[in-house]
Design goal:
The complex is a heterodimer of chains A (282) and B (296).
Chain A lengths: L2 H25 L2 E15 L6 H10 L4 E15 L2 E6 L6 H8 L7 E7 L2 E4 L12 H11 L4 H15 L14 H14 L4 E5 L7 H17 L2 E5 L3 H7 L2 E6 L2 E6 L1 H14 L10
Parallel strand pairs in A: 3-7, 3-8, 5-6, 6-7
Antiparallel strand pairs in A: 1-2, 1-4, 8-9
Helix pairs in contact in A: 4-5, 5-6, 6-7
Chain B lengths: L17 E4 L10 H10 L1 H18 L2 H25 L5 H29 L2 H6 L6 H14 L2 H11 L7 H30 L3 H15 L6 H10 L10 H13 L7 H32 L1
Classes of the chains: A alpha/beta (282), B mainly alpha (296).
The structure holds adenosine-5'-diphosphate and magnesium ion.
């Protein structure tokens, strides 16, 4: 047989297998259910709102807020056992959707149901206070997300070891390099033993060695967590780590399906340009 | 091949931990009970935040700890001299003990407002990345302010021991009730200013002026009796109760310095202001806190 055909057949068999697995998961319990969710930001025009500006604006009779529809009527179910890749251009609403699923941003309309404890690594979370050491930041983050003191203290050492930051763990975080910063952040998220793990563009940071280590850690975590969400510009890591994918564009859900299909549709879309694109073409 | 594709995750049964997120109108969370339960469960976070904040502030300067006491003490000296000069008669240790008790406690209250105002805005990344009851942040700053207040108490005690009017009775102990009310009142203020600071980042910049005026209107430099006498002369003694610190701080210092029982007006006013501040602070904060992540 022609080797090309053989490869093609294998790919199709694999796809059929994945489709069957997807169907099987879909019949099982749900981990996260997103129903008709829209999220609108209402922000002031100034970067830093002040009394002074408010008074000046009031004097001029200007409107104080502008609205940005970051997510528009998005609906999807994430069954237990899914690792969902979320792809889309900058400003597509990926981070916003993740924050909503983590319970940080309430939806403007719609409903989100989450079964399990969530650990997030959204836009590199730890290090909110540069005066505090890495260890203090890790402990505070863990306590805030509901772990007990014993649990966090146990994990702090594992976190430090995985992040490979040595004695910097006990130095103020303002002394960290950006690489150390993101390694620690990633390490925190994956060591909090969450039911549901959410990672927003974390793999893009760090060097090649750490990236490989991080990918391995995530594959390992997928076996123990109920669901995983991964936002990444690196489509290869979505292809490698995810068994389901959605594609957002300007807040709308464009496609939900097998990562291969979603990624190739997304790639085609990015090449062709959005004007020429039409979903019916698929 | 498919080997690069992940194996399906381990399916587990249902978990008890179910969260539903729905839109909110401006207003309180639908279920207040779970909010406060979660607040209580995560109290360790608030105390750890305060503890590590204090630690970080102290490591920066050894002088820091001393300064916590020295700063209000120097201010007390300034007012002491000022009052001596203005009144034309020498005020004794009695007055100084009263002055320091009032001023140190006032410092605690204004500390709650200051650190409270910074608490939410300073939570930046944590707020954006973790879901927790945000009320923990201003409460943590109340703890910080309280731990800065504690070392000033023995300093006050030394002055009081030299005062002629010193006496320790069960009324001295009763002052703790007023102190507790002051703490709750200050927590309410901390929540209010924390929220204001999110919407108006120059709140903290206005705060010192506000605090200074409040200090002059409160029974710190003047005793409750003096304030009352002045107000009575103008026929406005009821207006005094409009200042929460007249009853709270006044009642506290009357009991602590001189062991005098505040009259029932003072009690009623103090309890009322405590409740008002606590409820208003919690309500204002909690009805806005889901907005914080978008605005930080
Ligand atoms: N805090 C915010 N306030 C106002 N608008 C925001 C805020 N965060 C994001 N947005 C807007 O919402 C849209 C979606 O942003 P985001 O979710 O960060 O996209 P992505 O993560 O896919 O790049 C963008 O138009 C962005 O400008
Ligand atoms: Mg993003």
């Amino acid at each position: 047989m022609d080797p090309m055909d053989e490869a093609e057949l294998a790919r199709q068999a694999a796809r059929a297998q994945r489709a069957a697995a997807r169907a099987e998961r879909a019949a099982g319990p749900v981990a996260v259910r997103v129903q008709n969710v829209s999220i609108t930001y209402r922000t002031t025009f100034e970067r830093v709102p002040t009394f002074k500006n408010a008074i000046v604006r009031f004097g001029r009779g200007q409107k104080a807020v502008k609205e940005i529809e970051a997510v528009k009527s998005v609906t999807f179910d994430v069954p237990v056992g899914t690792s969902l890749g979320i792809i889309g251009a900058n400003g597509a609403g990926k981070s916003t959707l993740m924050r909503a699923m983590a319970g940080i941003l309430p939806p403007t309309s719609g409903r989100i149901e989450v079964h399990g404890r969530v650990s997030t690594l959204l836009a590199l979370g730890v290090g909110f206070n540069g005066q505090l050491s890495g260890r203090e930041n890790v402990i505070l983050g863990g306590l805030a997300s509901g772990l007990s003191r014993r649990e966090v203290e146990e994990r702090a050492d594992e976190v430090a070891e995985f992040a490979d930051i040595g004695e910097f763990m006990d130095a103020p975080m303002r002394t960290y390099s950006s690489g150390m910063f993101s390694r620690l952040a990633f390490s925190v998220a994956v060591h909090m033993k969450p039911d549901i793990l959410m990672i927003d563009e974390a793999l893009s940071a760090g060097d090649a060695v750490f990236k490989r280590k991080a990918t391995a850690k995530m594959s390992e975590l997928m076996k123990s967590s109920r669901a995983m969400f991964l936002v990444s510009h690196a489509l290869a890591s979505v292809r490698e780590l995810c068994n389901d994918a959605i594609w957002l564009h300007q807040g709308k859900l464009m496609m939900h399906g097998d990562p291969e299909d979603v990624i190739s549709a997304y790639n085609r879309f990015m090449e062709v340009g959005e004007d020429a694109f039409n979903l019916e073409d698929l | 091949m498919t080997s690069s594709h992940p194996a399906p995750l381990r399916p587990t049964g249902t978990v008890a931990d179910v969260h539903v997120y729905e839109p909110h109108r401006a207003g309180l969370p639908k279920k207040i009970g779970p909010y406060f339960r979660e607040l209580w469960e995560r109290r360790e976070f608030a105390s750890e935040l305060s503890r590590s904040g204090i630690r970080a502030a102290n490591t920066r300067t050894v002088f820091g700890q001393v300064w916590l006491v020295l700063n209000p003490l120097l201010l007390a000296l300034v007012y002491y001299l000022l009052v001596n000069v203005l009144s034309g008669q020498s005020q004794g240790m009695d007055f100084f003990a009263h002055l320091t008790a009032g001023l140190f406690t006032f410092y605690f209250i204004s500390g709650c407002m200051g650190t409270g105002a910074a608490s939410v805005v300073g939570g930046g990344r944590l707020l954006l990345n973790t879901a927790f009851p945000r009320l923990l942040l201003p409460l943590s700053s109340v703890r910080t302010a309280f731990y800065r207040f504690l070392p000033t108490l023995p300093v006050w005690l030394v002055f009081y021991l030299f005062a002629d009017s010193r006496q320790f009775t069960w009324l001295t102990l009763l002052s703790l009730v007023f102190l507790a009310m002051i703490v709750v009142f200050s927590a309410g203020l901390a929540a209010i200013f924390a929220t204001l600071q999110v919407y108006f980042r120059d709140t903290a910049a206005f705060l010192p002026y506000f605090i200074r005026i409040w200090l002059y209107l409160s029974p710190v430099i003047l005793t409750v009796d003096r304030l009352h006498a002045y107000a009575a002369k103008a026929g406005a003694e009821h207006l005094l109760y409009l200042n929460p610190l007249y009853s709270l701080l006044g009642g506290f210092t009357e009991l602590l310095v001189g062991s005098r029982m505040p009259n029932w007006h003072m009690w009623v006013a103090a309890v009322s202001w405590t409740l008002i501040a606590a409820v208003a602070g919690a309500w204002y904060f909690m009805s806005r806190e889901r907005d914080f992540a978008v605005r930080i």
